[in-house]
Amino acid sequence: MNHRNRGKNTSDDSLFGSEKQVGTLRTAVQDMHYLLSRGYPEKASSELAGNRYRLKTRQIQAIRGASASQDQMLNRKSKESKAEDLKGKTIYMDGFNVLILLESMLSGAYIFEGLDGCFRDLSGVHGTYKRVNQTLHSLELAASFFQHCGVVKLCWIFDRPVSNSGRICQFIAEFAQERKLDWETSLEFNPDQFLAEREEIVISSDAWILDHCKKWFNLIRYLIDNKNLNATIIQFSLA
After folding, report:
1. Residues 75, 37: contact at Cβ < 8 Å?
2. d(CA 194, CA 21)
3. Domain residues of the chain, as ranges?
4. Which of 1.25.40, 3.40.50, 1.10.287, 3.90.550 would CATH assign to domain 80-231?
5. Rounded to whole angstroms, how far apart are CA atoms 152 and 26?
6. Phi, psi dihedral angles at 24 (to 5 degrees)
7. CB atoms < 10 A from the CB of 158, how many?
8. Helix, strand, or coil here: 107?
9. Which positions fall inside the DUF5616 domain (predicted)?
10. Neighbouring residues of 195: CB distance < 8 A, sequence distance ≥ 6
């Protein structure tokens, strides 16, 4: 029996759970946006903001994920697809990025809505992937989206070097076969580059992929808006 969750770290409530902390993080994201928009590198920008507001490592990780330059925001917005654009299309999914984010959200972890409107978490693969209690529910949400939006085929792309990537591919393939879903799984050595080169719409919240892909869809936004998910979301904006 699997008893693992992908929820909060023990320190997360103290780092993200108060209005004071969230207010400081929002100011730090605005500062990062200012620096990024003027050509400062992401690492230097996050270090400057982190030092100024005395942020902890996980807080810096959060503001890095939430920040973007003005050019990045405009570029990503110009390529964003709507739900009605997906009907009859083949879609490519950034497997670990989407699956782990869904698992984290369903586990009650803090989720961060960035300046680009994308949602990100603080979990990671760290060289190996293990299924958790929320994995099946995450796939059920993906299946509901797939059927409701009339997607013809969904291609899940996973990192070949990550341990257990083959097992999650097999698990997803069996899930899809049982439900007669036209899903495909694939292992790639460089999934980011592979997804960025697709002509089809991709689903990811990875910043590099969003900057370099042709078209993308905000699946997490769609699920939050349409599935009444009880997510713990911290929103960032320039207002």
Report:
1. no
2. 38
3. 10-67, 80-231
4. 3.40.50
5. 39
6. -65, -40
7. 25
8. coil
9. 84-221
10. 92, 94, 157, 202, 204, 209, 213
Side-by-side strand order, sheet with 201-203: 80-81, 215-217, 201-203, 90-94, 153-159, 183-188
Question: Is 43 buried (19+), middle (13-18) or exposed (0-12) by CB count in 10 A?
Answer: exposed
Residues near 183 by beta carbon (within 8 Å), at least 6 away in sequence: 146, 153, 154, 155, 156, 172, 173, 175, 176
Residues 6+ apart with CB under 8 A from 3: 133
- The size of the chain, in residues, is 239
Instruction: DSSP for 20-82, please give it.
Output: HHHHHHHHHHHHHHHHHHTT--HHHHHHHHHHHHT--HHHHHHHHHH---HHHHHHHHHTEEP
29 contacts 115 by C-beta, under 8 angstroms: yes
Nearest to 32 by CA among 58, 65, 8, 4: 65
Structure token digits, residue 5: 């969750």
Three-state secondary-structure class, residue 187: strand
